[in-house]
Amino acid sequence: MPGKTKRIYELAKEYKISSQAMLKIVMELGFSPKSHMSVSTPEMMNAVKQKFTREKQVAKKEMEQKTQAKEARVKPPPPGGSTSIGGIKVSNSNTPVAGLMRKIEKRKKKKERRKKKGRREIDQQEVAKSFRATMANLSTGKTKKKYRHGGISDLSQPVLPDNVIEVNEYMSVAEMSKLMDVKPADVITKLLELGMMATINQRLDMDTIEMVASEFGFDTRPIEEIGDSVREEEHEDALESRAPVVTVMGHVDHGKTSLLDYVRKTNVVAGEAGAITQHIGAYEVLHEGNRIVFLDTPGHEAFTAMRARGTQLTDIVVLVVAADEAVMPQTVEAIDHARAAGVPIIVAINKIDKPNANPDNIKTQLAQHNLLSEDWGGKTIMVEVSAKSGTNIDKLLDMIVLQAEMLDLKADPSIRGQGVVVEAKLEKGRGPVATVLIQKGTCQVGDSVVAGVYAGHIRTITNDREISLRDVGPSTPAQITGLSGVPQAGDSFLAVRDDQEAREISLKRNQIKREYDYRRPHGQITLDKVFDKIKEGEIKEIKLIIKGDVDGSVEVLSDTLSKISTSEVTTHIIHQGVGAIVESDVLLAAASGAVIIGFSVSIDPRARELSKREKIDIRQYDVIYEAENDVRKALEGLLSPDVSENFVGMAEVRDIFKVPKVGLIAGCYIKEGRISRKDKIHLVREGKMIHTGHISSLKRFKDDVREVKEGFECGIGIENYNDIKVGDSIEAYEIVETARTLSS
């Protein structure tokens, strides 16, 4: 449709031709796309539509002419005329020969009718459909029917058209050939024609799957997650109001824990003070007949860890800010995390009973971060509370209930349970124990379930007060046992029909996870890939996270980078802060698809490990204009060969020795990786990078060595530098240059 952009291969699917054929047609029409993945403009789509309309009219006219010619050829002879048999003319009157001819024609007509009847009885489409159903049964064990709670077949589910197949990313060639009812060899041949070598067990990405399917005349419908086909849909007539899920966030020492503790003590559901267990990770409170579920998480790290895995669990965020202090970096970080998730924020201004409390000052500072109080004409609910004395805590809970009513949260408790894993662990004597929050439906003891890549059979259910339950419904936290392994926080939780179905889903998810982990290095946004993504129309802005050594540098760098833009893309600073790059920064980058810019700061070891696992691009700079140039060149597609620091090891300084004519030697213990004589090093003190240089000497006892590995002690001398102190860290790295090529 003109006005709505599509890629070339999508346009090809619409007209049911191959991507290469569509690419050729578009180029013949005077356009110059680079590949089948290029975006088609409205002009291009309009030209293609006109071409196909013209060809359709020409084809229709030719068909009409052929039909007329055929009718003219088979026109019967007139009554009383004659028919030629072997060159002899025979009259069509009632002669013996004419009677013989009529008998012969009669036999021929009967024979043709029998043949036609036989063809009707064996409908090839029905055979193909039956074959696909049989192969589906052989591969999965059961047909893909959906059932209501109690095992009743839901016959209202729509049936897919014959030319549409449901696919998931990283399907194998064999699996895809079964869905399309073609030979695997034909699929492999088609892939070879498209320039891709493949085997029968090779797994394909989604773009390749869509291309191959279109070549065989099929449209595809992606399955978002393995197991989605067995999920039961909610029914509007069965929807009931559910409790809101609330996460409390804020800066350390601002009273977040005190607020949670006060809510726990006044929890009338528990029956007695302090009856709620601390380890479950989620608990519920009853306030004036309204249930509220609180997530008891370590903070925004866990909050974002769930969102990084594609899970939106929280309905409302309560941001705690101390009235006697100010909006701190962690407060701003919490705002960024909540805003990135699109979750409404309620501000609790705590410690109003302190002598130096100034709530208006807090409101002013929050306004600078686009959180304007309702009593100042804004839209953000702000409540002044005291977690110590309990002042206005009831009002805060009232506001949470009011916000939940505005959100109109509902769920259907009559279907099989669906939810999210809040946390999980391995307990001695109990095995894997998962804290889950049911979002839809109901789970019962004995249900077959899948949590992430693990299957299981629910053995026990306990609530947040360690009371055993037979079932658990929407917006209710509970601990379950019986899984085959320990899932991750944020993994989906799903009750299925039986153990066999659970095992099949678990097996397929494990296969997809292995393929995803293998291919993940190409998935995240890096500065190197920005221009390619811009050309394909996939991104309109680069999201950046900035961390620096001092606030002044962060502000200058943030202002500088935020002003960089081109006609097609802009920069967006989603978070900035002071201090080393830590885990929460990497988690936010993973959840938001951002690049991390570090200015004169080090990377926490756990953050470095997480960035490798999540494939997050972290860039470190010492000069602001170098960071500006790299971002600007990335936008313009002019980024020169990528010069990156490849971390190889870290040593902790445990003693200092003075050596005559040499200088200071640091007595070190290699905590991570290895240290080599040829490496460059950063000297890090209290999270700040204070020197970059080379190693002048590396010794084990009295011997010079080329390399020392993790777990050993050594002596390290730094070239032309003696300001080394006990407790410093020496980080070794290699300079790696990666050439960047642009496809023109």
End-to-end distance: 28 Å
- CATH homologous group name of the largest domain: P-loop containing nucleotide triphosphate hydrolases
- Cα shape: globular
Query: What would you call the structural class?
Result: alpha+beta
Describe this protein's structure.
By secondary structure, this protein is an alpha+beta fold. It folds into six domains: 6-73, Arc Repressor Mutant, subunit A; 142-223, no CATH class; 243-408, P-loop containing nucleotide triphosphate hydrolases (Rossmann fold, 3-Layer(aba) Sandwich); 418-521, Translation factors (Elongation Factor Tu (Ef-tu), domain 3, Beta Barrel), CATH 2.40.30; 523-640, 3-Layer(aba) Sandwich (Rossmann fold), CATH 3.40.50.10050; 645-738, Translation factors (Elongation Factor Tu (Ef-tu), domain 3, Beta Barrel). 34% of the residues lie in helices and 28% in strands. It contains 19 helices and 36 strands. The strands form ten sheets. The protein has a six-stranded mixed beta sheet, with helices on both faces. A six-stranded antiparallel barrel has the order 17-18-23-21-20-24. A six-stranded antiparallel beta barrel has the order 29-30-35-32-31-36. Strand 25 (541-548), helix 16 (551-562) and strand 26 (570-578) form a beta-alpha-beta unit. Helix 6 packs across helix 7 (184-193), helix 15 (527-535) runs parallel beside helix 19 (624-636) and helix 16 (551-562) runs parallel beside helix 19. The longest helix has 32 residues, at 42-73. It starts with 5 loop residues before the first strand and ends in a 6-residue tail after the last strand. The model is unreliable at 83-93, 115-122, 134-158, 267-280 and 739-744 (pLDDT under 50).
